[in-house]
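Researcher: Next entry in the queue.
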Amino acid sequence: MSKKFYITTAIDYANGSPHLGHAYEKVLTDIVARFRRMMGEEVKFLTGLDEHGQKVQMSAQKLGVSPLEVCDRLASEFQGLCRALRISNDDYIRTTEERHKAVVQDILQKLYDKGEIYKADYNGYYSVRQEQFVTEKEKVDGTWPEIFGEVTEVTESNYFFKLARYQDWLIDTIRANDQMIYPRFRSADVLQFLKEPLNDLCISRPKERLEWGIELPFDPDFVTYVWFDALTNYITAAGYGTDAFEQHWPADYHVIGKDILVPPHAVYWPIMLKALELPLPKHFLVHGWWLSSGSKMSKSSGEVINPLDLIDQFGADAFRYFVTREMNVGQDSEFSLDLFMSRYNSDLANDLGNLVSRLLNMGGRYTEGRVPPAEIEEAPEKQLKELWLKTSAELVPLFEDFQFHKALDRIFTFVSGINRYAETRAPWKLAKSETPADQAALRTSLATMAEALRLAVALLTPVMPEISDKIRGLVGAENFELIEGQLEWGNRLEGKALGEKTILFPRPERKVL
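Model: Structure for this entry, 513 residues:
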């Protein structure tokens, strides 16, 4: 059985409601998944929720409920976000599921039996906010950075994973594979981290301090800590321990934010897999942060955008378009409501929405609501077709290289070209003439606009699936799955029924979000 294209997001942590960063990562991953499906590949797309840990336990205690109740509520919120954004994930994993607990305990036992995990006393500093041990070298100017919150000194016994023994292997692996991490400059971040000697990794917490976790199979007084729980979700969902595993693993892409590349995903996870004698993920796709006035949006700063507010007001596809158009994958990007409104009004409402509305209105008035034949090919038609040839030659390579912002720029340059073509041909003027030549030009102009719209939304589909399907329906184009043949100018809509005039992007009053 052939391997599926397997793509994952980081799993969200059950300590707060979804925000812009969560939404963007899911949209980014969804675009890759939808594009791959269009290319004819069978895709498995995973996202989910990380539900164990001290923060969840503390939140539950504060609310007077069980940790699972906290997780159930947040799982509902995150899954609701996926539905609202039309995310096409095939699986949603929660780390409290039995299928996951079984895999975590299985791999812990295997590594313990191999001598990769040992017990030792630890004396050092612990950050409750980050739920991790920290060292003196992480201080800045003699003080703990704010990200760590309150740091206390603790002494306790714990279990450790032999991380340090694999440091040289990991350095050699990353140096030998410059395609492993995208964008490539992020590899330098990992190698810089690996210049310092690695410490073995504490992978447990005593139950007297943390009960909300997966119990160690070899010591019931401890639960496993985040690394052997959260990171393992990727192989759990891939069917680890079953015949289906080879269909999915290794993952083709782990899509993650730059803040969790080092050390969790690019250091701990590859070494964990190496110790288990499993293949590494083929690639990490690392995206940047959303900024507000140059600073990262965060709950602590009060700069948080609830994506559901924007989706409710403007629609999922408008949100998907904006975050994709504005973010160069791998770089940081600025978010503002003014910029969002500018894109919505200019690109979507004016350029695309008015174009569709104009075509449908004229088709209903001049050609009895059907796509007419294209009867002539003169300079305006040739120029538009040449623009499409140039555009279509660039689109697939841009999608394959995750340059989605550039692909959208090319698509909307073509949409502007259709609008210019309409202004040049001016079918509303041609309709006033009864000469055969003008009537032929009228029919040709509407046929050309319909075909150009069909082509324009072909590769807009992964980014704006609902709007693209709606436009195809309005111009009489059939839905499709494969890109092959769909990017060629074919005048294949002749005789198809045009839909009623539709406002795709209504102009709501801007609310205070």
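Model: The chain has a mean pLDDT of 94.
Researcher: Noted, moving on.
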